Amino acid sequence: MGGLADVAATAAANASAIAAQVAPTAARAAGAGNPVFRRRCCDAAASAVEARLAGRSLDCSLVTGQTPAVAGTFAGETADYYVRYRRGYREATVDAVASALGLAHDDVVIDLGCGTGLLTLPLARRVRLVIGVDPEADMLALARRRTDATLAAKVVWCVGTDGDLPALVNLVGAGSVGAVTVAQALHFMDYERLFGQARRLLRPGGGLAVIANGVPLWQQDSEWSRGLHAALETWFQRPVTATCGTDRATQARYAQALAGAGYEVHEAVEQYQVDLTLDDLLGGVHSALSPGDVPADRRDAFANHITNALPNLETFTDTVRVHALIGITH
Ligand SMILES: C[S@@+](CC[C@H](N)C(=O)[O-])C[C@H]1O[C@@H](n2cnc3c(N)ncnc32)[C@H](O)[C@@H]1O
């Protein structure tokens, strides 16, 4: 594991650095820092959600007849690679995001594009209930498998997409949730529509978080990443340009759209380094490909092709830049 980069010396320092940038606004927006207001507000919203969910099966499907735009992309072995190789979110990062959003223990949160629950589950430890929504049943199945007994009653897994926010409002009630989180998934969504519709779900002072969990492995400023990028382009015979919403121009666009939808916008950045083995690197790449992109009988050739393009290193230092864009409602 590499040391933290230039932001702060320890994870704890990172957490407070991030929280310091955004927490005052969240507190203001949630009732001028009045804890009694906050408690009543979250309590009432969460109780309303619980009443609406009472008697329902805990797993649900938001049936709208809409076909998810990326159905299948994260299916099958992509989901398996995802659960095995994708990095999660550090506790300090989740604390900082929860604090920036002004979340309280009684809050309900919707984690849109929840995947295997990398953010959903740590969030559930901090609030009353998290509803994880994703179009990919295989990702949700793995999320469910990762849910231990202590969290089972605090998470609802739902098949659905960003297009289902109106159905979610019907399910849980307008003004009932403390936050909507979208981690590493906004690039699949109609973000302008989402930012507008999410406001109906949020309680007063609630917020929306857009989180980017590091730049893709093939887009980093390092010799090995450039080698990986070149190897992917020669293998697939096409330019590999995907930044998955992590580039600054896209993040500026998201920030502008959030402001345009009436949110008070803040951002927070955490940066740290982690050393990846060759296996981590290859697994990480497969977790970002669609099933069938590299057929099973070509997997070894693919691994050799990538390996030959990389510098001869024991480990590959991944500089993880976690970027959180936080929009708070008034
Ligand atoms: C890169 S994964 C991120 C998963 C998780 N949030 C994380 O941070 O690890 C992107 C997820 O977005 C989901 N997704 C794709 N299109 C979506 C949409 N229109 N609405 C909601 N989720 C979507 C995919 O199925 C996938 O699970």
Taking the sheet with the most strands, its summary is: 8 strands, mixed
What is the C-alpha radius of gyration, as a whole number of Å? 20 Å
Spatial strand order of the main sheet: 1-4-3-2-5-6-8-7
Give the overall pLDDT as a whole number. Answer: 84
Small ligands present: S-adenosylmethionine
CATH superfamily: Vaccinia Virus protein VP39
Count of domain modules: 1
The CATH topology assignment is: Rossmann fold
Low-confidence stretches: 1-39, 63-69
Walkthrough of the structure:
The protein has 330 residues and is α/β, with parallel strands linked by helices. The chain has a single domain, classed as Vaccinia Virus protein VP39 (Rossmann fold). Helices cover 42% and strands 19% of the residues. The protein has twelve helices and eight strands. The protein has helices at residues 11-29, 35-53, 76-85, 91-100, 120-124, 137-145, 165-172, 191-201, 223-236, 248-260, 278-287, 299-309, and strands at 60-61, 108-112, 129-134, 155-159, 177-183, 202-213, 264-276, 316-328. An eight-stranded mixed β-sheet has the order 1-4-3-2-5-6-8-7, with helices on both faces. Helix 1 packs parallel to helix 4, helix 3 packs parallel to helix 6 (137-145) and helix 3 (76-85) packs across helix 11. The radius of gyration is 20 Å and the shape is globular. The chain starts with 10 loop residues before the first helix and ends with a strand. Mean pLDDT is 84; it is low at 1-39 and 63-69. The site of S-adenosylmethionine (SAM) has 23 residues, from loops.
